[in-house]
Amino acid sequence: MDFREVLLVLHILLAIIWAGGVLFIGWGVFPAFRKMAFVQQRTFLQALMQWSHKFLTAAGGGVVITGVLLGTVFGPISQWQDMITTRYGLIWITALVIGIVTLLWGTVVGFRQSARLFSKVTLWKQADAGNTKPLTKALAAVVLLESAEGVGFAALVVLMVLF
């Protein structure tokens, strides 16, 4: 196995960790934590986000870096012109932009919005006291905002199938 193949395996593994981790939190953990009391939900989600944010951001960054290397140093893009004059180059640059935007969206926009929600202790205490509507609305907004990452992942999968 040559170095390019090792890099490709690493790229795929990091993509699985990044996308799989984000999707598991959204579709696996998020619905399951709803069984807890609201104040416990806040504490749990805050701890989960603080731990997973660094790990998943690093995996996403690794996907972008290995993707750049696979397309350029160890791939067919040898000059700037290749990115706009070849089918591979157009797909590659599109995937690069979508990957970077998806990573930045999750690490900057989504994470900050979630952190803001978790810092609003009174919202969670109100929900524990029976007034769940404001928290439910805020959680729905975060879920909608975070779903942009899922769209980015889906677009990346479509582009990878096109290669």
TrEMBL record:
<keyword id="KW-0812">Transmembrane</keyword>
<feature type="transmembrane region" description="Helical">
    <location>
        <begin position="138"/>
        <end position="162"/>
    </location>
</feature>
<feature type="transmembrane region" description="Helical">
    <location>
        <begin position="54"/>
        <end position="77"/>
    </location>
</feature>
<feature type="transmembrane region" description="Helical">
    <location>
        <begin position="89"/>
        <end position="111"/>
    </location>
</feature>
<keyword id="KW-0472">Membrane</keyword>
<protein>
    <recommendedName>
        <fullName>Copper resistance protein D domain-containing protein</fullName>
    </recommendedName>
</protein>
<keyword id="KW-1133">Transmembrane helix</keyword>
<feature type="transmembrane region" description="Helical">
    <location>
        <begin position="6"/>
        <end position="33"/>
    </location>
</feature>
